[in-house]
Amino acid sequence: MMKFFRKKIAVIALCVPTFFMASCSEEEAQQIIDTIVSIFASMLGYDPETENWEDTDEELDGDDVTTTKKSWEQYCPPVGNQGQYGTCVAWATSYGLKTTLNMIDGTWNTSNKNSASYQCSPVDLWHTMRSNYSSEVSNQCGGSSFDPAFKAMQTKGVATMYDVPFNNQKMTCDGVSGKGKTSNKISTYRTVAYSADMSSNGQAYGMTVENIKAHLEKGPLVIGARLGERFMSWNSSAVIESDTKDYQGQHAYHAMMLVGFDDSKKAFRIQNSWGKNDWGDNGMIWVGYNFFVKQFCFGVWSASNSSTAASAAPRKSTGNDISVKVISDVEQNMDGERIVKYTITNNGTNAIDTKDYSIIYLLFQSRDLSKKHILFNNEKNVILEAGQSVTVEKKYNIPGDAKAGNYYTALIANPYDEVDDDNQTNNFSYVAGKDLASFYVTGGRLFNNSNGTSIVSSIIDKDHANAYRNSEVQNSLIRMKKAK
Questions:
Q1: What is the mean pLDDT of the chain?
Q2: Tell me, what DSSP letter sits at residue 171?
Q3: Which range (2-11, 90-99, 100-109) has the least confidence?
């Protein structure tokens, strides 16, 4: 299929100048260009105009990269072929990323990755996002954005290739609803990086080699890229280092899966959805670091499953189990001073001295975990025997440098993983407004506009755009401590 498109595009590219000079009016020539663009749109399938770039992951630096190379290819499904349909976002996010995440965390066994029963269906996701998020996808049948794809996998799940196969059948836009699969969802997704021209303020976010490598250490990613002539016709295992910036006067947008990096090549490894026989390095490609961040890539996304990594070796029980819970958090006076009351409980079998680990109270922006403030560290040193609890009251103030915006607070025990805790899921107590509404901070004061508070174990707002898991918060704090 790609061979057909490459030949057709090459013929049109060669013929257009002749048409201009001899046989076409300017209007007719423009129609030819429009036809070329529509071919790209139907084949590539990404609509960048409707993308939401607000919900970002924490930007990481080179200190988080511990290896000179990383590859997730052993967990990836075989290279697929999207054919002539503009379904690249669905192929990259469902068939590519979601299938690979299931293999990595042990939900599915890698020995089955060639089986349709263990591959996520891009056809199902294509119809699910269009039937549930029709206002957020392209009005034409030629493409979609990443947000509706991730949202559909988060709220509806995605069926397998066995249940909803792709046999290069005709893809339709409307009138067909995806099946989804509630047992096959992602729990959260984030924007890892985007280029300056995709930003509302003209500033790039996270588009550095170090940040992208650090996120690749944690798992595969999905990317959006601008394609040029060299990429379209690439048939090599070498590293592509440059390309044309504009293709036939238009950017050609495409979604793919980022599966690794290699410092010896100074390149990222990408899995495409154009088949393995007629493009690239058996359907893969190496893209040079510098070219990747400066021109090729315009957006990077991460996602994660709700289950913990089954491939991780089980840890031997230590008998330690700390839990914390906020009782109340109220403002005391017009100066903004507040007092929080909370309990610390020893649920384990060993006596634990609270001086051996930290208990912190954290203020973090609802849409950016990297913008956080430690309100206080617990200073109460007490030895708790098994089954014992202690109630603590602590005064604090909102930091003056906390910029105006929406925030949550969280009480966290053992935030830097100082002691081996057998059950870290109960080490967190989040404070939110009614129905998980965020608080508003301005001028050193915290305002609760929802007329009520909720004490919960994790923060997942109504549209799941901010599904902060406990591990995300703790890993963020551990990296912050290392940075110090």
A1: 82
A2: P
A3: 2-11
322-483 has which CATH code? 2.60.40.10
Which residues, other chains included, contact 484 with Cβ-Cβ below 8 Å and sequence gap of 6+?
none
Q: Give the strand pairing for 267-271 and 453-456.
A: unpaired
DSSP structure string for 84-117: TSS-HHHIIIIIIIIHHHHHHTTSS-GGGTTSGG
DSSP reduced 3-state for 305: coil
Which two tokens mark 197?
Answer: 């021209």
Residue with token string 């939401």: 52
Question: Residue 307 CA to chain centroid, in angstroms?
Answer: 16
Phi/psi for 444 (5° steps) reads: 75, 15
The two tokens of residue 70 are 């990383």
pLDDT value for 110: 93
Residue with tokens 């009351």: 341
Query: Which CATH code of 3.10.450.540, 3.30.70.2520, 3.90.70.10, 3.40.190.10 fits the domain covering 40-304?
Result: 3.90.70.10
Query: Distance between CA atoms of 267 and 449, rounded to whole angstroms?
Result: 48
Start-to-end CA distance of the chain, whole Å, equals 53
User: Do 280 and 230 contact (CB within 8 A), yes or no?
Assistant: no
pLDDT in tens, 151-199: 999 999 999 999 999 987 667 776 788 899 999 999 989 899 999 888 7
Domain boundaries along the sequence of the chain: 2-39, 40-304, 322-483
Tokens of 345: 């409980």
Which CA distances in Å does 300 have to 46, 75, 100, 155, 216?
14, 20, 16, 21, 11
Q: Which residue type is seen at 96?
A: G
Q: Are strands 284-288 and 239-240 parallel, antiparallel or unpaired?
A: parallel
Tell me the C-alpha distance between 16 and 104, whole Å: 48
E strand or H helix that includes residue 231:
helix 229-232
Cα 449 from chain centre: 29
C-alpha dist (Å) from residue 277 to 256, 280, 397, 438: 17, 8, 62, 51
Selection from 48, 77, 62, 325 nearest residue 194 by Cα: 48
Joined together, the tokens standing for residue 65 give: 């990269």
Summarize pLDDT for 304-347 with one digit per residue, the tens.
996 433 333 334 567 888 999 999 999 988 888 999 999 999 99
Among left, alpha and beta (phi > 0; psi -120 to 50; other), residue 202 is left
Q: pTM of the predicted model, to two decimals?
A: 0.61
Please tell me whether residue 225 adopts helix, strand or coil conformation: strand
